[in-house]
Amino acid sequence: MLQFENIMLSYGTYKALTDINFIVEQGELVVLLGANGAGKTSIFMAASGVHKPSSGNIKFQGINLVGLNTASIVSSGLIHCPEGRKLFPLISVKKNLILGGYVHRADSVGIQKSLSHVFDLFPILKDKQDDPAGSLSGGQQQMLAIGRALIGRPKLLLLDEPSLGLAPLVTKQVFEVIKNINRAGTTVILAEQNAQMALSIADRGYVIENGKIVLGGTRDQLINNDSVCSAYIGT
Hints:
It is built from ten helices and ten strands.
């Protein structure tokens, strides 16, 4: 479904990604593990068209995304839920959600259907739909960010550090929703520092260090890898 082929990405003289190659199949939940600054976000930025790779191809359902604008990539069904949520804090929860469906703005019936789906997933957002997004708690804001991404009707959802800054109980709730989104048919790539929680719901994973993929495997292979455990899980 998504294939990175020899991707190189630089910011000026800094090489953020070097020779990135991996595949995500339809229906999978794949986790990217790595420390802050390892390159996980750069992989997402390249896929979503925010930063153009200096070389290589990124193919989504057979179409090369390199060189396409972000609107075209979103319209194709690849949706990026960024680190830090990137909400509009002064406008309402409902308006934030509707903005997530901007590329589908001509389909008002479809957007209302998507809104109803998000409100079913996150009832608290329905209760607070008229409140400013900035008034929500951290966990509620993360729910809103995921909900906004879902309004875009993703075939493939990129989730960047969804547990960042959340209490353990809220993190568990958010990951349960992510698992359910995947089980409902949406392919998910999850970038996370919380390796234990991420691997608990993943099918496969890749470890990123210094802009390179240094290890890949199934969930069980990574959980039982001593290097992964010592570096990312702590046991």
